[in-house]
Amino acid sequence: MKTNFAEELKWRGMLHDIMPGTEELLNKEMVTGYIGFDPTSDSLGVGNMVQIMTLLHFQRAGHKPVALVGGATGMVGDPSGKSAERNLLDETTLNHNLNSQRKQLEKFLDFNCGDNSAEIVNNYDWFKGFSFLEFIRDVGKHISVNYMMAKDSVKNRLENGMSFTEFSYQLVQGYDFYYLWKNRGIKLQMGGSDQWGNIVTGTELIRRKGAGEAFAITTPLIKKADGTKFGKTESGNVWLDRSKTSPYKFYQFWLNASDEDAKTFIRIFTLMNKEEIEVLEAEHEKAKHLRVLQKALAKDITIRVHSEQDYNSAVEASEILFKGSLEDLARLEEGLFIDIFDGVPQFDISHSDADNGINVIELLAEKTQIFPSKGEARKMIAGGGVSLNKAKIEDPEMKIDGSSLINNKYILVQKGKKNYFVIKAL
Questions:
Q1: Interval 112-166: pLDDT, tens
Q2: Mean of all residue pLDDT scores within the chain
């Protein structure tokens, strides 16, 4: 059953601005609408998922979604929300990035469902033969400098300066909308709230140059409840490409969401309906420590972005971390083991030391600096506070040898309840 697109966005908390007349248009006919994606990386990140989900809901409402990958605009650089000008990319790098992103978008949108099949377009296709003189004659004359200066994306940068290249960006994006309106019958552009000014420049160009009418919808920019930027961790962006962010880390990103964020994210990033989400929320409230919302969110999005097998592996790895045994650790592939303990302090020892055998106190206090002294290590072992490969150390005279190595390379040390260390035999 088709959904009402605007109403769907509203209850999910995904509607920021909507141009007058847009809802009436959507209720009257099948509308073709598009969203632009930045091609400065060869992978989309979880920050792009808001717009991917917007296109998904758009298609589910019976409309035709178009993803525009900005091969031309990527050469210019959008100043919206930026404090400094970004590096421009050469054509070879851009083409690589575009092809990679195209493959990711194809995992979410249906490209074979008849009239409202999704499409991908590249604005380089219509800009590559457009000369500068033609552009300022045919496009630039329709939009005044005063109009362009009034945009927040320009005003916010005037104090520190911005290049003409970035200043002209809104004209380039505006022409995208005009071109797609004229040649592809696209009447709606969508995007994040920081894109409102650029989108409206497009509707204005359509009005002034084409004597036509076009519409706009924007979604709110997602921020976490603690005010930090969504889509980033201490180690950087969370990507959809498994080689940049492993499925395990991807799963953990969602699983570690706060209760407040999980309530927001499960509406935006899953296709669950309102009733399903409310049932999960009620279940979550009864036993918050079970993290019902976070688990449902992490499962849904990890399967969609990666696979059910990747999700199952991530869950298994998470359980091993908290209650697994040496046998469980030994079963882990080396890459997954490294993923799980990425970021924990690591120490190197020689493989020959491990093969010959080392006293556990010597290992913890001399070969590594997990403990500042042998006395400190001995004291904590006596108190039952040290584990090796998930097994509590009871004998301070215990010898560690090659049989203690996970994957013939690693020893996992746990000090207290939460402090992990990895010792690597080289």
A1: 989 999 999 989 899 888 888 988 888 888 887 777 777 776 777 677 777 777 7
A2: 87
Q: Where are the beta strands (DSSP E) in 28-155?
A: 32-37, 64-69, 119-122
Q: What would the two tokens of residue 414 be?
A: 């746990």
Tens-place pLDDT, residues 368-386: 888 888 888 888 888 888 8
CB 37 within 8 A of CB 70: yes
> Across the strands, what pairs with 37?
69
The encoded tokens of residue 143 equal 């939009």
Task: Please state the φ and ψ torsions of residue 233, each to the nearest 5 degrees.
Answer: -125, 180
Per the CB < 8 A criterion, the answer to whether 76 and 172 are in contact is yes
Instruction: Kindly report whether the global pTM for this prediction surpasses the value 0.85.
Output: no
| Burial of 242 from C-beta contacts in 10 A (0-12 / 13-18 / 19+) | middle
Q: What's the rounded Cα separation, in Å, for the pair 1 and 9?
A: 16
Q: φ, ψ for residue 358 (rounded to 5)? A: -130, 140
pLDDT at 87: 55
Q: Which residues of 289-316 are buried (b: 16+ CB within 10 A; e: fewer)?
A: eebbbbbbbbbbbbbbbbeeebbebbbb
Residues 121/185, Cβ–Cβ less than 8 Å: no
Domains observed in the chain: 5-219 (3.40.50.620), 232-323 (1.10.240.10), 346-425 (3.10.290.10)
Q: CA 384 → CA 334, 389, 391, distances in Å?
A: 28, 14, 10
Q: String of b and e for 200-212 (b: at least 16 CB within 10 Å)?
A: bbbbbbbeebeee
Q: What are the tokens at 73?
A: 């605009």
Name the CA radius of gyration of the chain, rounded. 27
Rounded Cα distance, 190 and 58, in Å: 10
Type of residue at 364: L
Strands (E), 70-187: 119-122
The SS3 call for residue 6 is helix
